[in-house]
Amino acid sequence: MFGFGGNKNKSPASMPQRLTGDLADEKRRFEVIINSIEDGVILIDDQQTVQLINPGAAAICGWPVDEATEINVQNVLKLVDEKGQALESGKNLFDKIFQAEQTLRENNAFLLNREGKQVPISLSLSPLLGANQQVIAAVAVFRDVAQERAQEKQRADFISTASHEMRTPVAAIEGYLALALNDKVATIDNRARGYLEKAHISTQHLGQLFQDLLTSAKAEDGRLTSHPVVVEMGAYLQQLVADLRFSADKKGLQMEFKLGSSSTINATKEGGDRVISPLYYAYVDPDRLREAITNLFDNAVKYTPEGKITVGLTGDDQVVQCYIADTGPGIPAEDVPHLFQKFYRIDNSATRTVGGTGLGLFITRKIIELYEGRIWVESELGKGSSFYINLPRLTTQKATELQSDAANSSELAPINSLTAS
Ligand code: ADP
């Protein structure tokens, strides 16, 4: 039982009696504090009824304090998605908080205020436990982050525009350097060739850096385009590995493709030995996923001086799991938590000498998160690293439904070519 106000539904033995004497003073003190906080603060009881709302919350939601009290919080703090649609149940923190044991946070939330205007907010919702450890109330603390988001957008726009603009001259320089290095077009001596080759490599690196900057700016402000379709991951990955193995071959690395937990397909053989394996369906944009897996594969090739790269696919009822394992130098344990952050590169002799931008794993993580997937690494120094991607697995029935929905929609690309034959 919880309440600061005179809730009519409460038993006579509860709140009104507790709101006398010291407790009433407590409540007044509490009100003075929360009323002076600029952020929005709302206290709700276990029926999701607003018991207290401070002027900050009232201003953000566009509701007068007296009208917002004693009504369901979801009328006052209406959470919506970025398109302004009400959140599905299960995604709304207010529906989850009474089962939660800890504070829930959502930094990219939106609310629809009383005038119907969408306001970006950062929200945290903390459960308050009663004597029997049940959640009896919750406190929502939130603030209007429209200004911060606008600034972030300005920053991301600047990076996008700058890297886009800079790519053009870099591509031109790269083109001219390639011409100068071409025997059929230009005559240069060996020393000049050496300098130009170095310049060519650096220019390619710069071009890659601008490309990665552009992609990561888009990933950060949700502008990465994504057109998910049903993909049968076995056939998809086998094809992708066949396309990628060239770079491993070139470096003299062995390559193996493992489909399912025990069966192995030798990716070095044309067509491979087909084995019966379950169909692993996922709902992803095949081009975006290719970018993510290619990043992991390229890193495996880049950082592995000799040995083997294994690409595999496995899963259970819930998830499809792809992994890329190498026999490279491994990753120190202290670097693992930071590896998927922007610009993070490991500063050790094993990998520092290899060129890179430090953006690949950040972009890869952002792509995997687009599909509610998870990415992580397991690594042992001196033995190698394995990067894992878990994606939600679609049942065959759901995959068929989505495929026929897509087939009925003229806007979507045909998907048959992407699924297992
Ligand atoms: P980049 O490779 O461009 O530097 P990434 O974000 O792809 O950037 O990778 C970040 C860092 O993680 C790399 O600089 C490297 O130090 C380390 N790393 C990534 N993949 C591997 C790997 N397979 N083996 C060892 N180190 C790796």
Description of the molecule:
A 6-stranded antiparallel beta sheet has the order 2-1-6-5-4-3. A 6-stranded mixed beta sheet has the order 9-8-11-12-14-13. It has helices spanning 15-18, 21-36, 55-61, 65-68, 73-76, 93-96, 146-181, 190-220, 233-250, 286-303, 349-352, 360-370, 396-408; strands at residues 40-45, 50-53, 78-80, 104-112, 118-129, 135-144, 229-232, 254-259, 264-265, 281-284, 308-315, 319-326, 374-380, 384-392. It has 3 domains: 24-144, Beta-Lactamase, CATH 3.30.450; 149-220; 229-399, 2-Layer Sandwich (Heat Shock Protein 90), CATH 3.30.565. It contains 13 helices and 14 strands. It starts with 14 loop residues before the first helix and ends in a 13-residue tail after the last helix. The chain is of the alpha+beta class. Helix 7 (146-181) runs antiparallel to helix 8 (190-220) and helix 10 (286-303) runs antiparallel to helix 12 (360-370). It is 40% helix and 22% strand. Mean pLDDT is 85; it is low at 1-20, 262-274 and 414-421. Bound molecules: adenosine-5'-diphosphate (ADP). Residues 295, 299-300, 303, 326, 328-329, 331, 339, 344-346, 351, 356-362, 385 line the site of adenosine-5'-diphosphate (ADP).
